[in-house]
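Dear support,

I submitted the protein below through the web form. The confirmation email said the job was done, but the results page showed an empty box. After a refresh the structure appeared. I'm attaching both so you can tell me whether what I see now is the final result or a partial one.
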Amino acid sequence: MTRPNIVPTARSNIVSRAKPKIVFYLPQPFWPTTWPKHVNDNWPGFRLDIYAWTLQTYLRLKETGFACELSQHIPDEGIVLFHSNVLQGASLKPGPRQLFICLKSEAHPHVHAQLHVVQNPVEASHCRVFMPHWPQSGLLPRDAERQDRFETVAFVGHPNSLDPEFQSPIWQERLVQLGLQWRPVCSGENGAESVDNRWHDYRDIDVIVAVRSFDPRMHWQTQNFCNKPATKLYNAWLAGVPAILGRDSAYWAERESSLDYLEVNSLSQVLEQLVRLRDNSNLRQAMVAHGYQRAQAYTPQAITQRWVDFLNRVAMPAYEYWCQQPELRKNIGLLRSQALKLQTGSQRTANQRLRQRITNLSSLLDAVVANGRS
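What the results page shows now:
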């Protein structure tokens, strides 16, 4: 028996109906106490994945006139989008007229969601759709009046996303010797309220350095950070600033030219690339010009259009397809989905039981179909 496919093909015979309700689900415990005045505001909450993927996506779609809702409740019918963390540990399954879309981000996938949105292309697969993470809201690009000045080396992000070697005295000393200054723009450890509000301000930055880890063991354990996005690269392109980056799989997936960014694998390589950029203004200018062209695919407007296309061309047909399936086939599809997502050793027994249930249900469905034909 062939595996049921949640995402219909272009030739699927789906009856045209009224468009389903599209709801971004954000339960009461995660409801923000403060709200951005505008979607382009430098609102600290947008730097937290749960709000970047739910609230910001909702606001940007609404700004274009796209019909969708933000709710603390899951509707009985329709397409429901939610960040993975809000339902972690919950066994909630979609009903006969509900399509669950898990906004996976860096978390584990929800085992019963029929579709997932992932932020790294390497995670895209059957029922997992890649969508670029939003760039920094309210981003202020590098000041053109700085011209060929090359002085400020910056990191913008969470401190745990930067290799510890950048906190060493050696790093600071070497930069001083090169005539450069280090500016880490990092958040605190207590959520949105302690986030440094300069995340959006690239006006005085001449180059971005962002390396999560130089440790090859960390790259092996995380599969080159396969669940992380390429947001720092998008921001650098949009800000008109060259980027020196680590060996993240998300950066590799976006790379089309040596001008996209400079890759490094050690602190000494970072210093070498800084010297190269300092002494070669033509290279800096070429990287900025190339980055501007690449950035056009990652503006908020471009990503919003990708969301509209995804919801219209993938999510809505998938919803209709799901609604038309017999109850038994839906149960088989959910069980298959759950089995595929149970990967840890402690879950092997549960996985085996699920596979047996899938086999039994598949055999039963085949028998029902055969009897119906006879």
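Response: this is the final, complete result; the empty box was a page-load delay. Residues 146 and 219 are 36 Å apart (CA to CA).
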